[in-house]
Design a protein that fits this description.
With about 425 residues, this protein is an alpha/beta fold. The protein has 3 domains: about 1-130, Alpha-Beta Complex (Nucleoside Triphosphate Pyrophosphohydrolase), CATH 3.90.79.10; about 135-245, Four Helix Bundle (Hemerythrin (Met), subunit A); about 245-410, Rossmann fold (3-Layer(aba) Sandwich), CATH 3.40.50. It has 10 helices and 16 strands. Helix 2 (about 125-150) packs parallel to helix 4 (about 180-195), helix 3 packs antiparallel against helix 6 (about 225-250) and helix 5 crosses helix 6 (about 225-250).
Amino acid sequence: MKTTQVVTAFIRYQGNILLLRRSQKVGSYRGCWAAVSGHIEQVPPLMQALIEIEEETGLVAGQVELRSCGPSIEVNDESLQRCWQIQLFIFELVDEDAQITLDWEHEELRWLAADQLAELDTVPLLAEAYQRCRAAELEFVQSLNALRHDRQQGASALARQALQILQHSAEGAMDCDDEALRQLMALRCHLLRQARPSMGVIDVLLKRWQLAVDERGHQSQPLATTMADQARRLMVLSQQAVAECGRHAARLVQPGQTLLTHSCSSTLMAMFEQLRGQDVKVVVSESRPLNEGVDVARQLHQWGFEVTLITDAQLGLFAARADLVMVGADTVLNDGSVVNKVGTSLLALAAREAGMPFYVVAESYKCTTQSARQMTLERMAADELQHDFPQDHIANIYFDITPAVLITRLIDERGGDS
């Protein structure tokens, strides 16, 4: 049985897939429905797929964008004494005005949903091939959506989650040629960086990942392995930075003091781990609307701290009763101001009025070149507030900006600056 390497490129538009019926002039599978396909010649698979797309449909590279590079599939056809080794791709048609022009290899086209493939007389395993390639894309899409909608974890944890998504994407794309892998991972990195615009640490760490991959040079190991390794390396560095932040912050808290905090921060949780067993009282706000502060209070109570849980509205009252105020940050802007859970700036004002020090604990990975004007403060669904009121008249902005002038000190993994 002869082995032949080919590409199959599924073109998708508004959820439907482009199907082409093979003409009577082709050498095999006459009259069968197929995606764009062709033999791999003297070029990498991605380039071959783009060549076939242009030849068979008239679409050029700028009109389609790579969305998935699935694991290869093998089809044995006894009637042809041929083993097809197929590299799979999914492209999205991004030019709404594009016109499909068929060449001599095909005589008809249809746009169909994926579940309609089984209704047609297709080339072998066409539906299975699409589902296999789609599965790799769907795993990323689900992970991306989970990151977008996560309201419990802090920015550092979500940045590591984004890196882990890139790691898994790379590990699942070992069959892709290097150029396909670069394009695919660049797109996914971009989507992850845009997923949580108020959390600068995601953007910073993913930019570092991209830079490390771009600077890899000539290496014997596969590009996908390098991509996965760099994601793991940055996850470790992030965790180490958080731990160091906690160690430095713990030195600012003296036995017998009362510390007031707002929302959930991985750096502060690292600090509290350092303070376990010491005589430190903690006041935690519930941090509406999803009350992640309640989980913080529960954890600290389990660790043996004397904890008081308060509503966000009581922060000003308790600022005057605390010895120090300490929060984390999602982003540190170029002027030293910080983006954090909404309510932080009011807490900082209350701390200044009460004469209490206001500390921010954030690893240096959260420092960006963005200004306050450039920062997007994420707005979440109005129904999270659970009010019987017109939804379009409810504001649910999750983050605010605390000016640097209100911050006593910023503590990072190096100890911090005034």
